[in-house]
Amino acid sequence: MILTVTMNPSIDIAYIMDSFVPDQVNRVKEIHKTAGGKGLNVTRILKKTGNKVLATGLTGGKNGEFLKEQLDHAGVLSDFYEIKGDTRNCIAILHEGKQTEILEAGPAVSQEEYAGFIDHFQMLVQRCAAAVFSGTPPRGIEDDCYACLTEIAKKYSVPVILDCSGAPFLKALKSEYKPDAVKPNIHELQDLLNREISKDPECLKEALSEKIFDGIAWIVVSLGADGCFAKHHDTFYTVKIPKISVISPVGSGDATVAGIAAGIVKGMNDEELLKHANTLGMLNAQEKETGTVNLDHYDSLYRQIIVTKV
Predict the structure, then answer these.
(1) CB of 30 within 8 A of CB of 106?
(2) Among 74, 81, 290, 297, which has the highest number of CB atoms less than 10 A from its own CB?
Protein backbone atom coordinates (compact mmCIF):
# COMPACT_ATOMS: atom_id res chain seq x y z
CA MET A 1 0.00 0.00 0.00
CA ILE A 2 1.18 3.53 -0.80
CA LEU A 3 0.61 6.22 1.84
CA THR A 4 -0.11 9.75 0.59
CA VAL A 5 0.29 12.71 2.94
CA THR A 6 -1.58 15.98 2.36
CA MET A 7 -0.80 18.35 5.22
CA ASN A 8 -3.02 21.19 3.99
CA PRO A 9 -5.88 19.70 1.94
CA SER A 10 -8.78 21.73 0.60
CA ILE A 11 -12.23 21.67 -0.84
CA ASP A 12 -11.53 22.60 -4.45
CA ILE A 13 -14.41 24.62 -5.88
CA ALA A 14 -14.45 25.16 -9.64
CA TYR A 15 -16.75 27.89 -10.96
CA ILE A 16 -17.20 27.48 -14.72
CA MET A 17 -18.35 30.71 -16.36
CA ASP A 18 -18.79 32.08 -19.86
CA SER A 19 -16.99 35.26 -18.82
CA PHE A 20 -15.63 36.92 -15.71
CA VAL A 21 -15.70 40.70 -15.23
CA PRO A 22 -14.25 42.19 -11.99
CA ASP A 23 -16.46 44.57 -10.01
CA GLN A 24 -19.63 43.24 -11.63
CA VAL A 25 -22.17 40.49 -10.94
CA ASN A 26 -20.90 37.24 -12.50
CA ARG A 27 -23.15 34.20 -12.80
CA VAL A 28 -21.81 30.69 -12.52
CA LYS A 29 -22.71 28.30 -15.34
CA GLU A 30 -21.43 25.12 -13.68
CA ILE A 31 -19.88 24.23 -10.30
CA HIS A 32 -17.76 21.31 -9.12
CA LYS A 33 -16.59 20.58 -5.56
CA THR A 34 -13.90 17.98 -4.94
CA ALA A 35 -11.52 16.87 -2.21
CA GLY A 36 -8.40 18.79 -3.15
CA GLY A 37 -4.73 19.21 -2.46
CA LYS A 38 -1.71 17.87 -4.34
CA GLY A 39 -1.52 14.72 -2.25
CA LEU A 40 -5.15 13.86 -2.91
CA ASN A 41 -4.61 14.29 -6.65
CA VAL A 42 -1.81 11.73 -6.30
CA THR A 43 -4.16 9.51 -4.31
CA ARG A 44 -6.90 9.50 -6.94
CA ILE A 45 -4.46 8.70 -9.74
CA LEU A 46 -2.97 5.81 -7.77
CA LYS A 47 -6.44 4.45 -7.06
CA LYS A 48 -7.50 4.83 -10.70
CA THR A 49 -4.43 2.92 -11.89
CA GLY A 50 -5.05 -0.05 -9.61
CA ASN A 51 -2.70 0.67 -6.71
CA LYS A 52 -3.61 0.16 -3.07
CA VAL A 53 -3.45 3.61 -1.50
CA LEU A 54 -4.21 5.20 1.88
CA ALA A 55 -4.63 8.97 2.25
CA THR A 56 -3.69 10.82 5.41
CA GLY A 57 -2.98 14.38 6.52
CA LEU A 58 -4.77 17.02 8.58
CA THR A 59 -8.49 17.77 8.37
CA GLY A 60 -10.94 19.69 10.51
CA GLY A 61 -14.44 21.14 10.74
CA LYS A 62 -17.35 20.72 8.35
CA ASN A 63 -15.10 21.05 5.33
CA GLY A 64 -12.95 18.23 6.68
CA GLU A 65 -16.01 16.03 7.03
CA PHE A 66 -17.07 16.85 3.47
CA LEU A 67 -13.58 16.03 2.19
CA LYS A 68 -13.60 12.59 3.82
CA GLU A 69 -17.11 11.91 2.55
CA GLN A 70 -15.93 12.71 -0.98
CA LEU A 71 -13.07 10.26 -0.66
CA ASP A 72 -15.34 7.57 0.81
CA HIS A 73 -17.76 8.04 -2.09
CA ALA A 74 -14.84 7.55 -4.51
CA GLY A 75 -13.80 4.36 -2.71
CA VAL A 76 -10.54 5.89 -1.44
CA LEU A 77 -9.27 4.67 1.93
CA SER A 78 -8.35 7.51 4.28
CA ASP A 79 -7.20 7.96 7.86
CA PHE A 80 -6.75 11.67 8.59
CA TYR A 81 -5.73 13.31 11.86
CA GLU A 82 -8.34 15.72 13.17
CA ILE A 83 -7.44 19.31 14.09
CA LYS A 84 -9.58 22.14 15.46
CA GLY A 85 -9.29 24.46 12.47
CA ASP A 86 -11.57 24.12 9.45
CA THR A 87 -10.14 22.64 6.25
CA ARG A 88 -9.73 25.40 3.67
CA ASN A 89 -11.54 26.19 0.42
CA CYS A 90 -9.71 26.88 -2.83
CA ILE A 91 -11.66 28.48 -5.65
CA ALA A 92 -10.84 28.29 -9.35
CA ILE A 93 -12.80 30.54 -11.73
CA LEU A 94 -12.64 29.04 -15.22
CA HIS A 95 -13.57 31.50 -17.96
CA GLU A 96 -12.75 32.04 -21.63
CA GLY A 97 -9.86 29.60 -21.54
CA LYS A 98 -8.40 31.29 -18.47
CA GLN A 99 -8.17 30.22 -14.84
CA THR A 100 -8.30 32.65 -11.91
CA GLU A 101 -7.51 31.07 -8.53
CA ILE A 102 -8.47 32.28 -5.05
CA LEU A 103 -6.67 30.18 -2.44
CA GLU A 104 -7.29 30.25 1.31
CA ALA A 105 -4.23 29.82 3.52
CA GLY A 106 -5.91 27.14 5.61
CA PRO A 107 -6.02 26.61 9.36
CA ALA A 108 -3.12 27.22 11.72
CA VAL A 109 -1.94 24.01 13.35
CA SER A 110 -0.87 23.93 17.01
CA GLN A 111 2.29 22.18 18.18
CA GLU A 112 0.13 19.69 20.08
CA GLU A 113 -1.80 18.87 16.90
CA TYR A 114 1.40 18.51 14.90
CA ALA A 115 2.88 16.18 17.53
CA GLY A 116 -0.33 14.14 17.43
CA PHE A 117 -0.07 13.83 13.66
CA ILE A 118 3.56 12.69 13.88
CA ASP A 119 2.46 9.79 16.12
CA HIS A 120 -0.44 9.07 13.75
CA PHE A 121 1.89 9.02 10.73
CA GLN A 122 4.32 6.69 12.47
CA MET A 123 1.51 4.24 13.12
CA LEU A 124 0.38 4.29 9.47
CA VAL A 125 3.70 4.29 7.63
CA GLN A 126 4.89 1.03 9.20
CA ARG A 127 2.46 -0.98 7.07
CA CYS A 128 3.03 0.85 3.76
CA ALA A 129 5.35 0.16 0.82
CA ALA A 130 6.04 3.86 0.09
CA ALA A 131 5.10 7.32 1.33
CA VAL A 132 4.35 10.35 -0.84
CA PHE A 133 4.57 13.88 0.61
CA SER A 134 2.99 16.64 -1.48
CA GLY A 135 2.39 20.36 -1.19
CA THR A 136 3.15 23.16 1.26
CA PRO A 137 2.64 22.49 4.99
CA PRO A 138 0.04 24.68 6.75
CA ARG A 139 0.68 27.54 9.13
CA GLY A 140 2.10 26.55 12.49
CA ILE A 141 4.23 23.70 11.14
CA GLU A 142 7.99 24.16 10.86
CA ASP A 143 9.81 24.01 7.53
CA ASP A 144 11.54 20.77 8.57
CA CYS A 145 8.20 18.94 8.49
CA TYR A 146 9.04 16.69 5.54
CA ALA A 147 12.55 16.09 6.80
CA CYS A 148 11.04 14.79 10.07
CA LEU A 149 8.48 12.61 8.31
CA THR A 150 11.19 11.22 6.02
CA GLU A 151 13.31 10.27 9.02
CA ILE A 152 10.37 8.32 10.47
CA ALA A 153 9.69 6.56 7.17
CA LYS A 154 13.35 5.60 6.86
CA LYS A 155 13.24 4.00 10.29
CA TYR A 156 10.86 1.46 8.76
CA SER A 157 12.75 1.25 5.42
CA VAL A 158 9.84 2.92 3.57
CA PRO A 159 10.87 4.83 0.42
CA VAL A 160 9.78 8.48 0.24
CA ILE A 161 8.64 10.45 -2.81
CA LEU A 162 8.62 14.21 -2.19
CA ASP A 163 6.93 16.94 -4.23
CA CYS A 164 7.15 20.36 -2.60
CA SER A 165 9.01 23.63 -3.00
CA GLY A 166 10.63 26.45 -1.06
CA ALA A 167 12.02 26.09 2.46
CA PRO A 168 10.44 22.66 3.19
CA PHE A 169 12.08 21.29 0.02
CA LEU A 170 15.46 22.75 0.95
CA LYS A 171 15.26 21.41 4.52
CA ALA A 172 14.38 17.92 3.26
CA LEU A 173 17.31 17.90 0.84
CA LYS A 174 19.75 19.03 3.53
CA SER A 175 18.53 16.46 6.04
CA GLU A 176 20.57 13.40 6.98
CA TYR A 177 17.59 11.29 5.89
CA LYS A 178 17.02 11.81 2.16
CA PRO A 179 13.85 11.25 0.13
CA ASP A 180 14.22 8.54 -2.50
CA ALA A 181 12.64 10.64 -5.25
CA VAL A 182 11.89 14.33 -5.83
CA LYS A 183 10.00 15.99 -8.68
CA PRO A 184 10.71 19.71 -9.02
CA ASN A 185 9.64 21.60 -12.10
CA ILE A 186 12.18 23.81 -13.85
CA HIS A 187 11.08 26.91 -11.92
CA GLU A 188 11.33 25.15 -8.54
CA LEU A 189 14.79 23.89 -9.51
CA GLN A 190 15.86 27.44 -10.35
CA ASP A 191 14.52 28.73 -7.03
CA LEU A 192 16.29 25.95 -5.13
CA LEU A 193 19.68 26.57 -6.76
CA ASN A 194 19.14 30.35 -6.99
CA ARG A 195 20.18 30.65 -10.62
CA GLU A 196 18.81 30.48 -14.15
CA ILE A 197 18.71 26.97 -15.58
CA SER A 198 17.89 26.29 -19.20
CA LYS A 199 16.27 23.15 -20.58
CA ASP A 200 19.53 22.20 -22.30
CA PRO A 201 20.51 18.66 -21.19
CA GLU A 202 24.08 19.66 -20.30
CA CYS A 203 22.82 22.53 -18.15
CA LEU A 204 20.36 20.20 -16.41
CA LYS A 205 23.03 17.54 -15.87
CA GLU A 206 25.18 20.14 -14.15
CA ALA A 207 22.28 21.28 -11.98
CA LEU A 208 21.30 17.77 -10.87
CA SER A 209 24.94 16.98 -10.05
CA GLU A 210 24.96 19.66 -7.34
CA LYS A 211 25.98 18.38 -3.90
CA ILE A 212 22.54 19.18 -2.48
CA PHE A 213 21.12 16.23 -4.46
CA ASP A 214 23.65 13.71 -3.12
CA GLY A 215 21.97 10.59 -1.78
CA ILE A 216 18.70 11.01 -3.72
CA ALA A 217 18.12 8.12 -6.09
CA TRP A 218 15.54 9.71 -8.42
CA ILE A 219 15.34 13.35 -9.52
CA VAL A 220 12.66 14.03 -12.13
CA VAL A 221 12.47 17.60 -13.45
CA SER A 222 9.20 18.28 -15.27
CA LEU A 223 9.52 20.50 -18.35
CA GLY A 224 5.88 20.90 -19.36
CA ALA A 225 5.27 20.18 -23.04
CA ASP A 226 8.98 19.35 -23.41
CA GLY A 227 8.61 16.25 -21.24
CA CYS A 228 11.13 15.87 -18.44
CA PHE A 229 14.77 15.42 -17.56
CA ALA A 230 15.69 12.76 -15.01
CA LYS A 231 18.59 11.39 -13.02
CA HIS A 232 18.59 7.92 -11.45
CA HIS A 233 21.70 7.41 -9.35
CA ASP A 234 24.45 8.34 -11.87
CA THR A 235 22.44 7.95 -15.10
CA PHE A 236 20.73 10.88 -16.83
CA TYR A 237 17.74 10.74 -19.17
CA THR A 238 15.80 13.02 -21.49
CA VAL A 239 12.13 12.11 -21.85
CA LYS A 240 10.37 13.43 -24.95
CA ILE A 241 6.58 13.32 -25.04
CA PRO A 242 4.18 13.69 -27.99
CA LYS A 243 2.10 16.79 -28.59
CA ILE A 244 -1.36 16.47 -27.10
CA SER A 245 -4.53 18.56 -26.83
CA VAL A 246 -4.42 19.97 -23.31
CA ILE A 247 -7.70 20.69 -21.54
CA SER A 248 -6.18 21.53 -18.13
CA PRO A 249 -2.56 21.05 -17.00
CA VAL A 250 -3.55 21.43 -13.33
CA GLY A 251 -2.61 18.28 -11.43
CA SER A 252 -0.45 16.79 -14.17
CA GLY A 253 2.62 17.03 -11.95
CA ASP A 254 0.72 15.16 -9.25
CA ALA A 255 -0.20 12.45 -11.75
CA THR A 256 3.48 12.16 -12.64
CA VAL A 257 4.35 11.79 -8.95
CA ALA A 258 1.78 9.00 -8.66
CA GLY A 259 3.50 7.25 -11.56
CA ILE A 260 6.92 7.60 -9.93
CA ALA A 261 5.62 6.17 -6.66
CA ALA A 262 3.94 3.22 -8.38
CA GLY A 263 7.07 2.61 -10.46
CA ILE A 264 9.28 2.44 -7.37
CA VAL A 265 6.90 0.12 -5.50
CA LYS A 266 6.48 -2.19 -8.50
CA GLY A 267 10.20 -2.31 -9.27
CA MET A 268 9.91 -0.89 -12.79
CA ASN A 269 13.13 -0.36 -14.70
CA ASP A 270 14.17 3.21 -15.50
CA GLU A 271 12.51 3.43 -18.90
CA GLU A 272 9.27 1.86 -17.69
CA LEU A 273 9.04 4.19 -14.69
CA LEU A 274 9.68 7.33 -16.73
CA LYS A 275 7.24 6.34 -19.45
CA HIS A 276 4.56 5.36 -16.93
CA ALA A 277 4.90 8.59 -14.94
CA ASN A 278 4.84 10.85 -17.99
CA THR A 279 1.93 9.00 -19.56
CA LEU A 280 -0.16 9.63 -16.44
CA GLY A 281 0.83 13.31 -16.48
CA MET A 282 -0.35 13.66 -20.09
CA LEU A 283 -3.58 11.77 -19.44
CA ASN A 284 -4.42 14.12 -16.56
CA ALA A 285 -3.80 17.14 -18.82
CA GLN A 286 -6.43 15.80 -21.23
CA GLU A 287 -9.18 15.85 -18.58
CA LYS A 288 -11.31 18.68 -17.20
CA GLU A 289 -11.30 17.22 -13.69
CA THR A 290 -8.03 17.36 -11.76
CA GLY A 291 -6.59 14.08 -10.54
CA THR A 292 -8.22 11.80 -13.07
CA VAL A 293 -7.12 9.88 -16.16
CA ASN A 294 -8.76 8.02 -19.03
CA LEU A 295 -6.76 4.81 -19.29
CA ASP A 296 -8.24 4.02 -22.71
CA HIS A 297 -5.56 6.31 -24.15
CA TYR A 298 -2.70 4.99 -21.99
CA ASP A 299 -1.08 2.54 -24.42
CA SER A 300 -1.11 4.98 -27.34
CA LEU A 301 0.66 7.73 -25.39
CA TYR A 302 3.05 5.33 -23.66
CA ARG A 303 4.35 4.03 -26.98
CA GLN A 304 5.09 7.56 -28.24
CA ILE A 305 7.34 8.56 -25.35
CA ILE A 306 11.07 8.48 -26.12
CA VAL A 307 13.51 7.95 -23.24
CA THR A 308 17.18 8.57 -24.07
CA LYS A 309 20.30 8.28 -21.93
CA VAL A 310 22.48 11.42 -22.05
Answers:
(1) no
(2) 290
